[in-house]
Amino acid sequence: MQPPSTSGSTEAVVIIKAAPQVGQRHGETVCCAGIDLYGNWLRLYPVSFRLLEDRKKFGRWDRIQFKWRLPNDDTRPESRRVDQDSIDIVGELKKAERERFLAKSIVTSLQRERGAGRSLALLRPEILEFVVEKKEASEITEETARFEALRAQTDLFAKQTTPYQPCPYRFRYRYRTDDGERFGTCQDWETEAAFFNWARQYGEAQAADEVRKVFGEEYPRKGMLLAMGTHSQYPDTWLINGIVRLPDIEQGALF
């Protein structure tokens, strides 16, 4: 029996693209995850999304090919270190194909997934509440300063010429699963991107109201899934990394 591979190349459909985060080791990165053609979750990290060539800037439902290796500092079984220069968008999962592709990945209990050794999940919850919280000015200043300090230290971060703009709001869901109620911050890229888009059009206050209506009322009413991942340092802590709307999936007997 051959030992498992420690590196290789594969293809996956992108399901999670979390909002950018700033860290000491990799600068401004995006935590992404996808499901490969065999139904296995893969966590793709780090991806410095703004450094990608335009033709490589993938979105949810894109099929991407990439080279990977197993990380030395992350024991979660789905985690892969990605060579982001190798990323290639090779197609898109069409809407008519999504229900069948995702069917086996949808769960209703995070405890069961954790017990089975998994650290990524597509959760079908009952949404109880959506909270939009204004961050303290000191928190925003600290986030901005941390990025500027990193950018000044290395050539890699200096390439990121567009100023880092932390989101002035925090978005949180209270939701119920088979395990009971949970309350967590939503790190979904789409949520923050929508806020910034509306803020440019209407101003910050109205943008926050639009986020409340769309992500707190419309999405739960029409149906949504939460793309979940555990924290690398706290394996029992599940984070909301993304939102998948059920209207984006062909709905049949599955739902």
Keywords:
single chain, 255 residues, alpha+beta, OB fold (Dihydrolipoamide Acetyltransferase, E2P), 5-stranded mixed β-barrel, 4-stranded mixed sheet, 13 strands, 27% helix, globular
Distance between the termini: 41 Å
Backbone shape: globular
**Poorly predicted sequence stretches spanning 5 or more consecutive residues:** none
Q: How does the helix and strand content classify structurally?
A: alpha+beta
Write a structural description.
There is one protein chain. The protein has a five-stranded mixed beta barrel. It has a four-stranded mixed beta sheet with strand order 7-8-12-13. The chain has a three-stranded antiparallel beta sheet with strand order 9-10-11, covered by helices on one side. It has helices spanning 95-102, 110-115, 137-153, 155-158, 189-202, 204-222, and strands spanning 7-17, 21-23, 27-36, 41-47, 62-69, 79-92, 106-107, 120-123, 126-134, 169-177, 180-185, 224-230, 238-245. Strand 7 (106-107), helix 2 and strand 8 form a beta-alpha-beta unit. The chain contains six helices and 13 strands. Helix 5 (189-202) packs across helix 6 (204-222). It is globular and about 50 Å long. By secondary structure, the protein is α+β, with helices and mostly antiparallel strands. The chain folds into two domains: 9-94, OB fold (Dihydrolipoamide Acetyltransferase, E2P); 126-248, no CATH class.
